[in-house]
Amino acid sequence: HTEVCTGEKPEWHIIRPRKVTVKAPPPPFRFDISDATGDIRVLVCEHKRKIGRIIIPLRWLYIVESKRLQISWQGFDRWFQVLPMPMKGTLKESVAQRLAGVTPNTVAAAEENKFYPALPRERGTGLPDPETPLGHLRIKIDVHPYSSGGPHKNLILSYLHAPRSGAAVVTWRDINKDAKDYVAEENNDKVLNFEGVLRLVSRIKMLIKGPPLVMRPPYSIATMVWLYLACFWTSAPQVPWMMLALVGIEGASLFISRDLSETLIWESEVQKKEKKGILELGGVLKKGLRLIGAYQYKLSLIVSALERAKNSISFADTLGSVMLYAALAFLCLVASILISIMPVGLPWFLVGAGALLPPYVKLYKLYMGHSKICNAEKRKNPDFFDRFKMSALSLAENFLNHLPDQYELAHRHICDSQIIV
Fold first, then answer.
1. Which of 135, 134, 139, 29 is nearest to 79 (CA)?
2. Would you say 311 and 409 are in contact if contact means Cβ atoms under 8 Å apart?
3. Is 244 exposed, middle or buried (0-12, 13-18, 19+ CB in 10 A)?
4. I need a labelling partner for 342 at 20 to 30 A (CA). Which of 93, 145, 320, 326 fits?
5. Can you tell me the distance from the alpha carbon of 316 to that of 42, in angstroms, rounded to the nearest whole number?
């Protein structure tokens, strides 16, 4: 029995438990594993309302022993914390989906299958903090691999079959497919998702952040050793293996530098952006428009330079193309003479060393405390190499600016059309 205190005055009552019929535990769930990279998703519901979830990666069920290259399966019996469901789409998401004829919260429903990290300073991207803990569940999983064909063979072959993990499936057909074909589909649920745009921008920034690790200290030390061996100790049949070694160095560098400890999960961990007033928003808008204009100008310069380079080799400007090919022929002559009198790998070693050494020179200058002083003196009194580099760059820019881009070619064509035959 249980004693309970009720009311203002302590009055004790005895509550006798009702008769409870103890049912036998339900039989365990059994299912086949068709994709070892998938997940086991457990939804916790209350009166048919989803309140939480537990997601168990299937990769926890097997271990790849690197020494003997064997795969061993294992079950486990653990307690899990129930994590909340993802936040529902905002009003602007719902409006955008309704205008596009898509059922609202389509994106939010897809996020139930996977956990997504929160984005710094972007509200609504983290998991909502529950007011009270959602509880814990004990889950026991046993693995019974099939004997036919061997579990190792089946696991390896699963990587060659169509994935069913619930993650984004990348196929060349989808990439090569025209966007208008997606719009023409009846059951298409692809519509502008503001949170998806923010996540895509964040992923692109992380993807193109800086040069490859094989070119950054301290990993570039291994690249320097590889460069020396590739240039002076590698025969022609060994070149493919040296390229594989370079890919391995980059992979090892990525493995060592991978750190997911700072991944944001909860909405409370997201640093909120301060709300700005109307005047401040006007200033931000003005600055944003000018920033977009600056990027537009830079992009137009890049496009124009690429068009001029393309037209320079196609005799769009006859004199400019003749000068370019003459200069390239002279450089090829000088290069062939130098290659004939020096070791074959030395030019490549010098090029590679020139790309790998500058970070170490910069670190040395910072360590010696002369970096700022040297940079200031260099700007005032540039040395011979700086003057030569600036002169060569200026000549190349002047030559490129005299070549026509696409607008200049169109301008010349319209000028030709003025002539009356």
1. 139
2. yes
3. exposed
4. 326
5. 65
Separation between Cα atoms, residue 173 and residue 55, nearest integer Å: 30
Q: How far apart, in whole angstroms, are the C-alpha atoms of residue 372 and residue 365?
A: 9
* CB 144 within 8 Å of CB 232: no
DSSP 98-155: HHTT--TTHHHHHTTSS--PPPTT-TT-SBPPPSS---EEEEEE------TT-HHHHH
CB 47 within 8 A of CB 40: no
Cα–Cα distance for residue pair 49/45, rounded to 1 Å: 5
154, 162 contact by CB (below 8 A): no
What element of type H or E holds 6? strand 2-6
Could you read off the pLDDT tens digit of each residue along the chain, which spans 421 residues? 233 333 444 444 444 445 545 566 677 788 888 787 888 888 888 888 888 899 888 888 888 776 666 777 888 899 999 999 887 765 555 655 555 555 545 555 556 778 888 888 777 788 888 888 888 989 999 888 776 555 567 777 777 877 766 666 666 677 777 777 766 665 555 666 667 777 788 888 888 887 888 888 889 999 999 999 998 898 888 888 999 999 999 999 988 988 888 888 888 888 766 655 666 667 777 777 888 888 888 888 889 999 999 989 988 888 999 999 999 999 889 888 887 888 878 878 888 888 888 888 777 777 776 555 555 555 567 767 778 888 888 888 898 888 888 888 888 888 888 888 7
Closest CA to 192 of 124, 40, 283, 90: 90
